[in-house]
């Protein structure tokens, strides 16, 4: 079987698993279990907690002890078992620990899937830079298909979403053992310290002002990403409590509406090279922050009836908000970090976004929503919630261009020209 097709199938299932529950777990939590917002914020923080340390641990294991594709399969099989057990949990405290265990198995597979794909392509002398992005796009397609499948089967508030994710996770885990071998290689430590081996030497980048500022804003934008992941689907579900909106498409199939965000994401990726060449990386990052302002602001003003166009536009804007910072940020790290620590620096970028950003964003937002925007009858003031999130993104956007002093250099221009 063609190796590119096999990797497409791997990426499709990888993100199908996530898409089956990531955006709809809020509806399950609030509509089915009726647990609190602060506790839900803790649930979403598990992604950040797992992202801080698990990818490093599994990376060391794959480098030294076991084939990456086998470790990848084992993690997915264990994740399938945990996902299958989630509907059996009866209290939010236990739910936190079970979902944390699931994220400890799932989050490392994001980087392991890249390792497996790169190894398979290089072993067949296939250009990774040219061929991998189209393969990875099918991961986003898998995420979208999962959202649609859960929505069209009316499982957004049902525990069935976890069973669906569990089944695909088990299938991917077994399939992983048929992928091309990605053997561990002996790490040449030489004079390297233990800190170098674990990639901790990349923390020295914080001594450089441009990197320190960049990583701080990565954390802040990572928090914004968790706000939309955690509450977008729940926000649309809550309109069902208002008679005027009960029969609207957005209320009946909120996950499908939210999937427009992922469709937009695939399209904005194609626009990044043009924007980078035309405006430069600093302003592309700024555009991302302004897009977050619009993302949240349009949610605040929209509704499933006459204001549906604002909700749809918010989902379209998400593509710019997500891609323009994540892709351009990765390019910034690639061109500005020294060659010997580029891998560690990229890991730190992801740790700040998906690790610390996810952790603090979910924890703080859950507390704030419970404390200031939840009424006595447990209904939520979504208009004020989204406006406060929009104000948060606006403050970041106003500060960023004044503190992040950076101009194009030759390395970045060359990278953009070949993007």
UniProtKB/TrEMBL annotation:
Subcellular location field: Cell membrane
Stretches that traverse the bilayer: 7-30, 42-62, 71-89, 95-121, 133-150, 162-179, 211-231, 251-276, 283-302, 308-333, 345-365, 385-404
Molecular functions (GO terms): cytidine transmembrane transporter activity; uridine transmembrane transporter activity
Chief localisation class: membrane
Lineage, broadest ranks: Bacteria, Pseudomonadati, Bacteroidota, Sphingobacteriia, Sphingobacteriales
Domain Major facilitator superfamily (MFS) profile per the UniProt entry, residue ranges: 210-419
GO terms under cellular component: plasma membrane
Name this protein carries in UniProt: Nucleoside permease
Keyword Cell membrane attributed: yes
Keywords: Cell membrane, Membrane, Transmembrane, Transmembrane helix, Transport
Keyword Transport listed: yes
Annotated membrane topology: Multi-pass membrane protein
InterPro entries cross-referenced by the UniProt entry: MFS_dom, MFS_trans_sf, Nuc_H_symport
